[in-house]
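S., here's the first fold you wanted:
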Amino acid sequence: MSEYFSLSDCDVIGFDLDHTLCRYHLKETSRLIYESFTRYLVEHKDYDKDLLTLTPATWDFCFKGLVVDLEDGNLVKLAEDGTVLRATHGTNNLRTEEIIKQYGPKREWKHFNSLNTTFTRSTKYYFYDNYFDLPGALLCGRVVDMLRKRGNEVNSDFWKDMVAAIDHNYNTSAFKEDAGWYFPSVKRDPGRYLQPCSESVKTWLRSMKSAGKVLLLITSSHSDYCRLICDQILGKDWEELFDIIITNALKPGFFSLVPQQRPFRTLVNDVEESEGLPSLDKPGWYSQGNWPHLHQLLKTMTGNPEPKVVYFGDSMRSDMFPASTFGKWETVMIVEEMEGEGVPKSDAAETNEAQVEPQEKKGKSEDQGMKAPSAPSEQWGSYFVDAHKTPGGDDESQKLTWCCHSIHKYSTMAIPSVESIADLPLDYKFPRFSPNKPCTTGYYPRPPDSLLKICQSQSS
C-alpha cells in the first residue's frame, strides 16, 4: 500500500451528512439536544426540573469519546489499551485511589475487549462518539447525580429512560409529526443550527463529478430531515451533486455482511415502500439498504470489478470502523477536535462561519463561557492524549487515548472539516496513517498540539 492517499485514485467518493458535509453551530445544537432529551425526562418520567438548568461552565463536562458504564453510573475515558485514564461517578471526578479501588491496580475496564473489537451496542455500556448524542453524556452524569441525591440506587434502569428520550426526539416519524423538541426547533429556524457549505465545497463536489467520480451520500437521517439539511447547506439543486443518495441507512448495520443485511427500499413522498428491492440496479435516492448490494451497483457504474471507494464520516462506530472493516473502503475521519488543539480553520470555514452566525446570537449570555463541545475540557483533558500515573509510583507517562488510537487504526487520514481540503487539487497526495510512521502522520493540515508534544518528547 502506498504511503500516500489521493482522491484522484478513487472511483467513488462517499459522504456522511451530519457533522461531515453539514457542520452545525455546535453550541446552539448541543443546547437544543440537551433540552430535548431533558424535557422528555422531566415531563414524561418525573425527573427533577433542576436538570433543565445549566450554567455555561457545566458544558465543560461534555466531551466526545466517553463511555458510560450503565451498571454503576461511572463515565470513563480510556487509553488505547483499555486503561481507565480518568473517570467520574455522575459528574464528580473519581480520585486515583478510587479508580484503582474500582478497576484494580492496572485500572482495566472490564468491557474493553468487547467495545474495542466490535463497537457494537451493549446493555452494559454506551459509547459517546458523535455530536448528535453527546449532550446525553452530560445528561447521564447529571441524572446519576440526581439519583444519588435522592438516595436511589444507581443501576441500568435509568438508561431505559434515556433511550426513550432519544427515541422520542429522533425516531423516523418525529420530523413529519413535529414530535419531540429537536425537529420542530430545527424546522422553525434551520439557520440557527445549520452552517451552509462554503462555495469552495460546492465547487469541489462539482469538480469531482466532472472528473467522472461517482458521488454518494449515505446518512442515517430520514429522507425528510436530509432534504431540509441539504436545501439549507447546499441549495435547492443539491440532488444534482450526487449519483446515489441513501437515507435511513441505519449505520453501522448498513455495512454488515449477510445475513444481517437489509434490502434497499424506494421512497414515495418520504414513505418507504413496504417491498424491499432484490438488488440495486440504477442510481437514485433509496432508503435503508446494505453494502453488498451497493457494491454490485458501483461495479456496474464504474466498470471496475473492484471499485476504489473513499468515505468521509465523523463517527468511529457508524462510519470509520464498519466502512474500513466490512467495506474495505478508504476512510477520511472528520475530527473537529483538531480545531480545539491549534489546527487552524480553513479560510472558507472562517468566512462562512462569520457570515452565517446568527447576529442576534452574538454575545448572547448563555454563550459566554460555554465550552464548544469540540474544545479540550478542563475535566477530561485532550481528546487525543492524556497523562497516566503508574500504580503506586509518581511516574507519569503520556498515553494515546483509545479514540485517537482508533482513528489511526480505522481511518486513512483525518481532517477537521471538508473545507480544509476543498481548495486542493484532486491529485493532492496526503500522507496516510501507518503503524510504521510517527503518530502525527495522517492529520491534515497538521496534527493536534497534544500529539505534536508527545512526538517531540519521544524523539528528544
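And the second, which I think is the more interesting of the pair:
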Amino acid sequence: MWVLALIFLAAACVFSLGVTLWVICSHFFTVHIPAAVGHPVKLRVLHCILQLLLTWGMIFEKLRICSMPQFFCFMQDLPPLKYDPDVVVTDFRFGTIPVKLYQPKTSTCTLKPGIVYYHGGGGFMGSLKTHHGICSRLCKESDSVVLAVGYRKLPKHKFPVPVRDCLVATIHFLKSLDAYGVDPARVVVCGDSFGGAIAAVVCQKLVDGPDLPRIRAQILIYAVFQALDLQTPSFQQRKNIPLLTWSFICYCVFQNLDFSSSWQEVIMKGAHLPAEVWEKYRKWLGPENIPERFKKWGYRLKPHEPMNEAAYLEVSVVLDAMCSPLIAEDDVVSQLPETCIVSCEYDALRDNSLLYKKRLEDLGVPVTWHHMEDGFHGVLSTIDMSFLHFPCSTRILSALVHFIKGL
C-alpha cells in the first residue's frame, strides 16, 4: 500500500511541476511587460501566481472537485489579515449582505466623511479580505468611515446580482449614517475595476433618491464603464499586458453576463450590434473622443461587420445602463456628483476611463483625473503585498486621500 502511495505522490509532484512549468512558459510566450511599468520581474511573478491559481482552478473544475472561482476565492482568502491598531474594524450584515466597517480609533465629536467601497475582481475574484488593507489605509489616512461591501459573485451569482447587493447595502448605510458618525453631506462611493463599474451604477441609481442623503462624490479606479465595444485603442494596444489580458477580459465578461463563448469572435468584430446602435452611441464611444496621444501606435480603426442577429438577441444586455453606465441618458449623467477617475496607461480598460471622463465633463460634472503613466490594471491591490508592492499603488491611494480631504 505504501508503495502505491509513494507512486501516487511522485506522480502528483511531477504533474504539479509540469503545470507550473507550463504556466511559466506560456507567460513568456504570450505576455508583454512594458519597460515603463518598472519592476518587471515583480509583475512577471505576480502574473505567474495569478495564472497558476487560475490554471489549478480550471483543473479542479474539469475534475468536478470545485469550480474555478471557488478555488480561486479559497486561495486568495488564506493569508491572515493585518489589523491597524488605529482602525476599529467591525464585521456585520445588512440583511444577508456581509459588510466590513472601518472607523478611525480616535473618537471625536466631529462627523467624518463616509466611503462605501466596492472591491474589484472581475465578478469572481476579490473579497472583503483581499481589500482589507486598502480600506484600512483609506480609513486611517483620510480620517473617514469606510464601509466595504461583500457582494455575491460567480459562479452562483451573475449580473445584475452584484450591483443589486451593493445598491441595497449602500441604501442601508445612507439610512443609518448617524449610527456611524458620518457626515451626510460627505458620502462617497468608491470602487476599483469591477467595483468601479458598480460604484458608477450605484451613483446613477441614487441621483434621484428621495429621502436619502445625496452622494457627494464618486471615485472610480480603472473601472469598466461599457461592454459594447471591446476594440477601443487600449483594448488593441494592451491586450497582452498583465494583469488584464484579452482572454481574461473575455472570461470575466462572458461569465458575468452569461454569454456563450462562441460569440467571442463576433463581438471582437463588432457584429453583435446593429449599425443603428453603433451610430447612436458613436458620440460617446467613438475613437475621436480619445485624445490623440493615446492612439499613436498599436491601434487600427476597424469597421464593424454586418450584424449577426442571433448574437444580438443573446448579448443585447450590454445596452442596459446597469451593464454599461457610460451610455446612460444625459438627464442622469448630468446630475452625477463630483468625480475622481484613476486610469492606468498599461491597462486594457484605460479608454473606458477616458471616455467616461469626457462624457462627464461634456455635461458639466467636475472631474479630477489621475493618470498613472507606469500603472497597470489591478496595481492598487499590491499596496500591502510586501515584496510584490508597486510604488504606483501608494500614489493612487495618496491621490484618493487628497481628493476625499478636499471635499
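Why I say that: The chain has two domains: 1-31+39-77, 86-226+322-406. The chain has 15 helices and eight strands.

Talk tomorrow,
H.
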